[in-house]
Specification:
mainly beta; Maltoporin, Chain A; five-stranded mixed sheet
Length: about 650
Amino acid sequence: MSSLVFRRSLLLGTVLLPVSVHAQEVLAPIVVTAPLETRQIDLVEGSSLLTGEDLDRRRAATLGETLQGLPGVSSTSFGPGAGRPIIRGQGGPRVRVMENGVDTFDAATVSPDHAVAAPMGGAQRVEVLRGPSTLLYGSSAIGGVVNVIDGRIPDSVPKNGVSGTARLDYGSAAQEKSGFAGIDAAVTDKFVVHGEAGALTADDYRAGGGRTIENSSMRSQNGAIGASYLGDSGYAGASISRLSSYYGIPGDEAVHIDLQQTRLDTRFGLYDPLPMLEEVKLKFGYANYLHDEIEPDGQPATRFDNDSWEARLEAIHKPIFGGNDGVVGLQSNRRDFSARGEEAYLPATVTDSNALFLLERYDTGSWLFALGGRIEHVAIDNLTDTNDRDYTPGSLSASATWRFTPGWQAGAAVSYTERAPTAEELYANGAHLATRSFEIGNANLGKEAAWHSEVSLRKVQGDVTGGINIFATRYRDYIYGAFTGNQQDDLDELQISQTDADFRGVEVDAAWTFWRDPLKNRRLGIDGGIDYVRAEDRSNSSNLPLIPPLGYRLGFVAEQDDLGFRLELAGVARQDRVGANETATSGYRVINTAITWRPFDGNRNVALLLQGRNLTDEEGRLHTSLLKDEAPIRGREVRLGGSVTF
């Protein structure tokens, strides 16, 4: 039983991105972020999984850069040190970013120059769910969920008593050097301890055309210790981790961010605690986070402090009517946030949220139905005055998947989701030097509400696999920030307001293994995809700002036993459907290549990875970045990495 710890939960999702030739052939069930175990192919909304070689090939300093270019995913990209995912044109407080199923407890939703506190060096897998079906994680998941999973709390007993991994990487564009090592050791047959450490250092990076981007260097260190008891009737585990990061914000102001976080996580679970319950599990996380914004003279101008905790209790019940299962749960969290200093444009606030959620699923064989709901109460206490706010958002979702013939599935989903505004959206008022803006909140904001619908069709078996997702989201009182065209304190004025808005789009992915030699384990294949989202202000038919353009990718893959090769073309189209006071962004395309070699016959535990990124030295810019002109994408780069697992 202990080998199943922490693997019996997690979501309903579908990987549309062809992650490797082996994955395309087998498409085995995977674990994706949600409270019920469901095959990857059974969720209507699209999802992506990065693990193994695919994660190593994409691994970067930030979560946003790691995920950039996945179907429907872009990044805020505020230089190499900070980048948060944007899913289907939605980011910030509409995308829930988690570490092992619990919040990252950082300040990344406050501003794009704030890094996500989830170091990528120790990530074992990253799960991305596009769309609002993960309402079980809160109204902040209205746009989607990203979950970074690592091994800080062991979930199984090592086979030979000890297991671990070590990795070294080098990137030429910024003379980037990084390393990570982690180990699990069985003290007894039920008690396992864990330790890990990682570090990264990088100089100012070189963009396309040979230009060096000043003030873009970074360095970071992280470490963790953890332990688990893995019993026959339950489990208990805990970890404590530390992250520090120091990075520059490219541009004339030469601002640096000095980030520190100390984090505690615990997990508990019981198997078959009652006759009708399969499992009860509890997760709790707490973190003390702070960062200083350092001015060019080396003095801290502003300090952001975030003391937060979150708890989730889930009870998974056994089938009641033969083909159904479900989960009911409680979630509670507190965020004690403050900003102090010259540019403290946010007041000190305490946000409390408490929620009840339920998901039921019924499987007939040919059909899979799911119905979920969530009700929560959000209270925001403004500690500087009496202008407190509280909200009671509610959410519902329903989906149906039809397995109409072997290897083919079709699905449809609909959901209604409400989101309470964040303290930043309500109370911001002042200069923010790092983003070169004067931000103005709106204390009269109401709840944001969205109707979402999505249909999908996919082929999941055979040499040709792939799928298509078509979606539409209609917002009432959509909360967004837009530049007004005015200035305060020589900074562009950014005003938070509400409007009615429509998002609609399509995502298509396909993979074809066109030749294979099973006797020698050789294969040749191609894969590709395209994604597009359109976002409009329904009140005046104008464009919403910072919406990613059409993206596309095409790849060729060759594999033979311990040698793999990938060549890909990836890019985006020009974005000229821009919001008020926003400029158009030219499209770009890059060519990447990767060679993976496992030098010891029959031993896949040692791997070398050689990559060439942006081989044509393209000077590309992300439309979703407020620093698109100051910080374009990296230029031509050679990357070399090696890893050992045991």
